Task: inverse folding
């Protein structure tokens, strides 16, 4: 994959990254839905990681939501976008999201969905806000794993989508 | 015969209970889980967490990303590390709020699932209560039919008794055949 900056590499995750990815997601437990270790390992091939000087600095992944959108052009949710604090403001988050979008565009996804506490970040990447009622299935299948809010509609996360070509 | 004995052993195995009260400390919570880990064999084990007292208590299982250790946390009482690094696989989404949305007397069930002699995962068992209820109902029907048969022998009662007991064992084992 592409190099973002000198000493920075975006690449597919390896099995040896699983524990670090799990810990990285957990470091951002206030902003991200926690993932069990089993989920991380089972879906490791979907993770893109950013490495700076050999250290895992960030990660992002996706999940296909066949229940949202046409069956042959499903929506894809971008998940677990996280960058370690010392590596922020260097464009890593944007590079990770773009790398995931490039992957999902390749297999014909119609749009990329995010549920986020950082709408400004995703707006700059071309995402637009939508009502949560458009992604009901996602709310009731994904939010069940979240320990922060009992009701997905009172959760302050914002739903945003970006149409894909 | 061994298969029947094993099935019976699984059927009668009772889950462990932990009562979470306002006075529960993180050290007690952690020690309870360490004890469960010490007693583990190859079979999964159910843990029933019962919120005790009207006010309940907010207790959490958490993961320390700095050293990969699991932590027990009780609001207002600090936390305690489990000393089970690389043994406890954080399979549930952490932090796991043990008393979430629980009124006094409500129960939450965790499943401790050994994956080899050294490691185990802990998951939330969503359907345990319903399954146990159905299992008890079927067992009751079977037992009642057997009692009736003693007084009024009839082939239909034998069939009903066998079906009741069979279904209760099946319901008990269906979601985790190793249990």
Result:
């Amino acid at each position: 994959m592409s190099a973002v900056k000198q000493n920075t590499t975006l690449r597919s995750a390896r099995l040896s990254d699983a524990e670090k990815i799990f810990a990285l997601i957990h470091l951002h437990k206030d902003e991200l839905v926690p993932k069990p270790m089993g989920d991380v390992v089972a879906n490791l091939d979907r993770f893109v990681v950013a490495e700076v000087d050999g250290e895992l600095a960030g990660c992002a992944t996706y999940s296909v939501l066949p229940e949202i959108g046409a069956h042959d052009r499903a929506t894809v949710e971008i998940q677990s976008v996280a960058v370690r604090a010392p590596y922020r403001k260097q464009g890593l988050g944007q590079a990770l999201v773009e790398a995931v979008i490039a992957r999902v565009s390749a297999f014909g996804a119609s749009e990329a969905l995010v549920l986020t506490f950082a709408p400004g970040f995703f707006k700059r990447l071309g995402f637009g806000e939508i009502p949560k009622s458009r992604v009901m299935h996602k709310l009731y299948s994904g939010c069940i794993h979240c320990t922060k809010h009992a009701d997905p509609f009172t959760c302050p996360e914002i739903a945003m989508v970006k149409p894909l070509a | 015969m061994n298969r029947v004995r094993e099935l019976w052993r699984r059927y009668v195995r009772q889950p462990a209970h932990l009562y979470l009260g306002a006075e529960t400390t993180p050290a007690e919570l952690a020690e309870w889980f360490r004890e469960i880990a010490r007693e583990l064999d190859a079979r999964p084990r159910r843990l029933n967490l019962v919120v005790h007292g009207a006010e309940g208590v907010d207790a959490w299982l958490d993961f320390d990303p700095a050293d990969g250790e699991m932590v027990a946390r009780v609001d207002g009482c600090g936390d305690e590390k489990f000393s089970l690094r690389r043994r406890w696989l954080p399979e549930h989404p952490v932090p796991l709020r043990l008393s979430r949305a629980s009124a006094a007397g409500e129960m939450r069930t965790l499943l401790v699932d050994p994956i080899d002699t050294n490691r185990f995962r802990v998951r939330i068992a969503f359907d345990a209560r319903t399954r146990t209820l159905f299992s008890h109902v079927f067992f009751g029907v079977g037992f009642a039919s057997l009692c009736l048969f003693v007084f009024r022998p009839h082939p239909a009662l034998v069939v009903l008794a066998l079906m009741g007991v069979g279904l209760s064992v099946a319901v008990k084992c269906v979601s985790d055949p190793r249990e």
Notes: The first strand of chain B starts at residue 16 and ends at 20. The first helix of chain B runs from residue 2 to 12.
